[in-house]
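Sequence in, structure out.
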Amino acid sequence: MTLAEDNGPERGGDDMFAAEYVLGVLPSDERRIASRRIDSEADFARLVDDWEVRLSPLAAAYPETEPPASVKPAIDRRLFASAAAVSAEPRAGFWSSLAFWRGLAVAAVAALALYVAVPYVNRPAEQPQARLVASLAADGSDVKYLAVYDSERHEVSLSHVSGALASGKDFELWMIEGKSAPVSMGVIPAGATAHIGVSPATQQRLAQGAVLAVSLEPAGGSPTGQPTGPVVAAGDLKSI
């Protein structure tokens, strides 16, 4: 396989399937399948648990945020506009009112929606997606990585799922944008997890959704600035 060929990722087995479930990037039908398998297959449920533990440190840099005082009134206005008209009508009794209990139930749902929406309400609309994820795999290769690009920390985090590195060789990470020449993002450090900083010139291109690829290179990386070895894994960055 070369960088010029189709480099869409293959699923990569149950381990990658579980990782994508934890990250929330599966299509709705595949997510339902994964949920059923968690309930019925102990081995698959353990894979999901393992990935939740493995990926949980990625959230450490994002502390809880107190919502602005304006958020709750804005949600109330949108959700309870019709309820306000109903509240103006005479009632037989406050505690026996069906409208009151319905309103209380809606308020509980609104509170949950507020809790979930706060991180997105506080983020300026013009900013790019904070995180993108890619499953990196290729036909005929046992090398698999899970990559997460964090635009706020300006780095790509890599989890090595499978595939051994040959002696005297290194894996090198590349960014591919359309038909442009691949751009090296650096040699991937050995280990189960690795972090690679992203240069300012590359940040905007990554945020728009490029392809990440891993090639097998001589120790220290490609001597030419372009891939010299086979592409052992690749995949599209997608929004979480």
